[in-house]
Write a structure and sequence with these properties.
The protein is an alpha/beta fold and 399 residues long. It contains 15 helices and 12 strands. It has a 7-stranded mixed sheet with strand order 1-7-6-5-4-2-3, sandwiched between helices. A 5-stranded mixed sheet has the order 8-9-12-11-10, with helices on one face.
Length: 399
């Protein structure tokens, strides 16, 4: 039977303390104990079901974490105040001074900046490689390597990681495979393919309304317990805690993720096929021209499609900016970073979300000035959207 993560989400049922169909929000920063011994035991990590302080966890955060773990097929999960608030504790929990990381060269700019510029302060070094070439990944492993890090579908070039292949390499060398699945929730389930830890920026598709920043780490109970440990847990000690009100909000939106992802994917595939037929340089995993099209198909949960992200290259940054401004004026979407909103969002990554990556590195990885990254929205009439987009391109002599 095929793995259907949406079913795991919809089978979760929480009752509020007064019988509400939404669980009650735990609006407390600290929690009371009936005995001093229980407080002591909780600080020692031995009192299951007890809460001590909201930086550690809250019932609201645990509800959301449980739902996200069900979605990814992991034992449990820990939510955080942002995507970077999920990524950085994972790296620093797994690595110490002198350790080494192998990372995809095409990753979110904030992650790149952390690994390239900040982690070396802790004497943690990173090799950035073409993650699609498994032989290069394996050849980059040293005796100090602890992590292979990648994104299921990379930001912004939409390269697709061979998660099964990377997992085999990681297990062969006793490494942890950490996968950021932000671009492809439900479409790809990294844990079922062998990933040890799955990360999301909840800000994007999972929340879907561009009103909340959040993150999650999905993994084993043992690893999540390590992150939460009051003595040496990176998530606990860095303090990037999600607010309970926000956790409750994300949980409500999560319930419609399976419906939204189907529509994002449907619309993106339609536009990608049209753009490619028009002669635009178009990258989308659902196109047969994508070098990793068959790989994505072999990993995907078919019902949810190839995701909502696509790119086109219009040649120059000037043309890209003109087109994005015109599309915004035509109410086709917003010239904005981030993704997963109900309206289409578009940006030029080289000068925005990937600006942390030096220009020479951008050129090496194939990130051109004229590249526009689209997060395709939930438009009910995608044919009309395409027609107006095409008119904009004709007006600017792009087509």
């Amino acid at each position: 039977m095929a793995f259907k993560p949406a079913n795991s989400i919809q089978d979760l049922q929480y009752f509020g303390e007064f019988g509400g169909v939404n669980p009650s929000i735990s609006d407390s920063s600290t929690y009371t104990f009936l005995s001093a011994k229980t407080m002591f035991d909780t600080f020692e990590g031995n009192a299951d079901g007890c809460y001590l302080y909201s930086r550690h966890s809250t019932p609201s955060n645990l509800y959301l974490g449980e739902a996200l773990a069900a979605m990814e097929g992991t034992e449990t999960a820990n939510v955080s105040a942002s995507g970077m608030g999920a990524i950085t504790p994972v790296v620093l929990q797994l690595c110490g001074a002198g350790d080494h990381i192998i990372s995809s060269r095409t990753i979110y700019g904030g992650t790149y900046a952390f690994l390239k510029n900040f982690a070396p302060k802790f004497n943690i070094e990173t090799s950035f490689v073409d993650i699609t070439k498994l032989d290069i990944v394996e050849a980059s492993i040293t005796e100090n390597t602890k992590i292979i890090y990648c994104e299921s579908v990379s930001n912004p070039l939409l390269e697709v990681a061979d998660i099964k292949g990377l997992a085999k390499i990681a297990k062969r060398h006793n490494l942890k495979l950490v996968v950021d699945n932000t671009f492809s929730p439900l479409s790809i389930s990294p844990a079922t393919l062998g990933a040890d830890i799955v990360i999301h920026s909840l800000t994007k598709f999972i929340n879907g309304s561009s009103d909340t920043v959040g993150g999650v780490v999905c993994g084993t109970q043992d690893f999540i317990d390590e992150l939460r440990n009051v003595n040496d847990g990176a998530s606990m000690l860095f303090g990037s805690t999600m607010d309970s009100l926000r956790a409750a909000s994300v949980l409500k939106n999560l319930r419609t993720l399976h419906i939204r992802m189907q529509q994002h994917s449907k619309n993106a595939l339609y536009l990608a096929r049209k753009f490619e037929a028009d002669g635009l340089k178009t990258v989308y995993p659902g196109l047969k021209s994508h070098p990793c099209h068959e790989l994505f198909k072999s990993m995907m949960n078919e019902a949810y499609g190839f995701g909502g992200m696509l790119t086109i290259d219009v040649g120059t940054l000037e043309k890209a900016n003109e087109l994005m401004e015109l599309m915004q004026n035509k109410n086709l979407g917003y010239l904005a970073v981030s993704l997963g909103f109900y309206k289409t969002l578009f940006s030029a990554p080289g000068s925005s979300t990937s600006s942390e990556i030096p220009e020479d590195e951008q050129k090496k990885m194939g990130l051109s000035d004229g590249l526009i990254r689209f997060s395709i929205g939930l438009d009910a009439d995608i044919e009309r959207t395409y027609k107006v987009m095409r008119e904009c391109m004709v007006e600017l002599s792009i087509l």
